[in-house]
TrEMBL record:
Organism: Anaeramoeba flamelloides
RCC repeat residue intervals: 155-203, 207-258
Name recorded for this polypeptide: Btk-binding protein-related
Membrane spanning stretches: none
BTB domain segment(s): 481-564
Amino acid sequence: MSNSSSLYITGFKKVFSFLTQEKNNNLPKWTESKIKKTQTIKKIVSGNPPNFLVWKKPNKLEFYQKDSEKRKYQLPKKEKIKDIVSSFQTYQILTESGKVWSLANENRFKEVPLLDADQSTFEKISPITFFQEKKLFVNSLVMGFTSCYYLCNGDQLYASGSNSQGRLGIGKSKGLKPLPVYVQDKVSKIFAGSHSSSFFFTTSQPDLLYSCGNNRDGELGIGSTVDQSTPTVVQNFKGSEILTVSSGYYHSILITQKGQTYSCGYQRTNGHGVQKTIFTLIPQLKEKKAVQLSTGSTQTLVLTDQNELYGWGFNEDFYYPTDESNSSKFPTKISLPGFFTNYLESKDLIRIACGSNISFLYLDFKNTLSQDLRILFHSKKFCDCEIGNLKNQTPVHKALIEFRTKLTIDQIQKKLFGEKKSINKEQTLDFLKWVYYDEISDKDINKLEQTFNLLKLTYPPSVDNTLEKDIAQLYKDDDSKDFKIMVKIEEDDQEDDEDKEGNYEEIPVHKFILLARSGLFRSMFDYVNEKENLNKVQDYTNKSIESLKILIKYFYTNSIELKTNQDPKFIVDELSDAVEYYQLNDQCNLESELLKIKKQFDLN
């Protein structure tokens, strides 16, 4: 799995054969996609098969469709994606500036009546100017089956698209342009499913739910099967704030902030096995704390806080992976691929998504440490030693491999490639995938265990031997740091210090950490002749020594911690442009850390 992906799929193989190398008609288990992963996946949404949209970078998207080349889209540089949503043949993108953009099939452009037919195409992203013209800032948006809802200016609700079955909540009016939707209280959240004609809203009373639209099978949860053309109170959850709601063709699923899972609608898809016209707690999940939810047209996936995955609903074409393609009326526990077992102790990493006849499983790295090291490993740049036999030498970064194994390179070489024994090239690669980014492949798992045994390492690795924890510990290992950043200091600040040389203070660091985490340092080293064996570099960023040390520690730990004598406002101001200047991949995580400091010290 060189250049492997964390994206796994299951479903109707005939439709998504272009994604995998499997030869079966269907995918009865999680199957690794062929999509090469060079950036963390933030979100995946699926339109009418066979197509789906992947959000990877702050302003970049990738579109995959059967019998077509992969399309790449980039929004203007100042725009950062906040969310992406989908309907059958339409995608909409919300940016942090409150603007909305669209991708739509020209044959189904009426799903986005804000666009002209010649604008609605998968060839390019088209801006929807209506909201800017009306001076509306879009906070969030959802899409269902040919209908859209927009929450604007904090609490104003608008809807557009098809109003069949009253799904726009505007009575019998047509929604060719976004029209305001009247709700008795100020709307705070909006919910839908991409294959649904039912929509839900919460207000300033977060435990009070409203719904409108299709209700043929009781999926609105109002106690009847009558469609609702205006927002109607569903039921009060008595203090249980609503986390999320999602619907399919015939059913709706709700999760509260406490993790309780409720459902209503058609008996074969609602998780109860009997018809329900009101939201009722699903008995099989009563003791589980649900944290994620995704519905396809007829299937549902729910992930718990313990990273346990459950699925139910129609399953004739393996829309979710089970031993047999039998539909399940009740939640069935689903095994995760071996690749994901390394992340079971980490929260908010595993992501689930459902399409009409496909399900997705992927990782959204809150920090990109493992992803940065993955890229560094495959680049083979600036390695300082090699392991392997005489015929197959693999370049590696000494400090990383020695710290993760607690063995020297010489010891590793003797144990794995001694005279009487030698692991093969494939085994070496699998071992290094674990070293660099914690990957344990489903394939040849016994051979990896054999490698661990030769090194006398515990297999499987304990939860205390994860990449994240090892790198955080490596920060404290000054003896193995093989590089120094020289920061010029002002004369008034000079003191007697063993780390100071002339007018510079030296900050020790591991070279591979700089290479993995910062595009600026990678570019800097590209211009240096490796024969010079550079082990120092001068910092010209005009950052203070104090803030630079905090940033270097962040490279290892993915967190920012301030000492009592440090000025939080000064540090936040100095690091506010660090993502752009140092060319970091983990924009979201660093900004989140700075936001925590702002909130902690009331700097807003």
